Amino acid sequence: MASTPSFTASYEKVGITLPSAPIISLNLLKPGSESSIQEKFILDTGADQSCITFDIFKRLDLEYFGDAAVNVGGITGRSRWRKTAVQIETPFGFNKIVEVLINPQSDDNIVGRELLNRWKILFDGPGEQYTISVP
Question: What angle do CA 71, 75, 76 make, to 5 degrees?
Answer without folding.
Answer: 70
